Amino acid sequence: MSSSELVQRPEAPAAAPAVRGRSTRSQTLRRSLSPRARRRRWLGLAFAAPALLFYGFVVLVPIGQSLNYSFYSWDGVSAARWVGVSNYVSFFTDPALLESLGHVLVLVVFFALIPIALGLLSAALLGRGTTRGSGVYRWLLFLPQVLTSVVVAVIWKRIYGPDGPLNSALRAVGLGDLAKNWLGDFTWALPALGVIGTWTAMGLCMVLFVAGVAAVPVELYEQARIDGAGPIREFFSITLPSLKGQVAVALTLTVTGALRAFDLVWVTTQGGPGTSTTTPALLLYRKAFLNPDVGMAAAIGIILAVVCLLVALVITKLSEEKNA
């Protein structure tokens, strides 16, 4: 071959962009699928289609309708009137709604933070299965999860009554001056509701954390004891880091439960006395059915759904960053 032919030979083409390379690989993968594999893929989609259609009809369509209603002023009977984002603006300017948001923050402490703290304490005491009577203790703590929220509310409404067991116990030990109608007191009604939430949520947190501790290798605790670690150091060095996933799940469930609190409040106080125990979910019910303002009720529902979604995403993101 002559030198002139070497000079005139064209250069090798540049490498294809990465996107084109991925596209080529995906096309090659699709071509490589056998007819049987393709049939299996379509068969799987066919099996999932009824569930997806049902989910879309039951969940996605109502969400879309609620979003549409939230831009109108409508009492559910007369003609609807377009108001744009006025309902959303009212949510953050209405004193009653702002007060209900403050109540939710208090309930988050009782429904989420305190149960998680008590659940972690239970996991530290019961997780290794060495405490006598731990099975009965777990059963008693998990009992509220078996009962419906209405039954729980009725039980505690009786406990908190003027002649209920709580006031009777206070009088029996000489503390009759502290006895009161707990759910009818402007100061104590909200904390009393919070205690019910703590009692209900603690069992769930305890079960999650005890199950997580049971999955921790025993060798880690044995090595820690050889190194001279005590129970407290074991908890913060081994138990707590191993429960990050369970804590994220418990925090998501309990915080969103506090944001959506309705049935417990409705059965016990109906938002009273006055407005001392109102929640956004309770106001949503009132505006939807008692004093019809369907547009405002839909706006409250959309905002609550978005807030719950954001809470779940933030907690998941933070737990993933800590595990990375």
Count of DSSP strands: 2
The arrangement of helices and strands along the chain is: HHHEEHHHHHHHHHHHH
The major β-sheet equals: 2 strands, antiparallel
DSSP helix fraction: over 70%
Question: How does the overall form come out from the CA principal axes?
Answer: flat
Radius of gyration: 29 Å
Class by SSE composition? mainly alpha
**Strand line-up in the sheet with most strands:** 1-2
- List low-confidence stretches: 1-22
Q: How much is the average pLDDT? A: 85
The fraction of residues in strands falls at: under 5%
C-alpha end-to-end distance:
59 Å
Count of helical stretches: 15
Question: Can you summarize this structure?
Answer:
This protein is 73% helix and 1% strand.
Secondary structure elements and pairings:
Blueprint: H1 3-8, H2 18-32, H3 35-69, E1 72-73, E2 81-82, H4 86-91, H5 95-126, H6 134-146, H7 149-159, H8 165-172, H9 189-214, H10 218-226, H11 231-242, H12 244-259, H13 263-268, H14 280-290, H15 294-323
Helix pairs in contact: 3-15, 5-9, 5-12, 6-9, 9-12, 12-15, 14-15
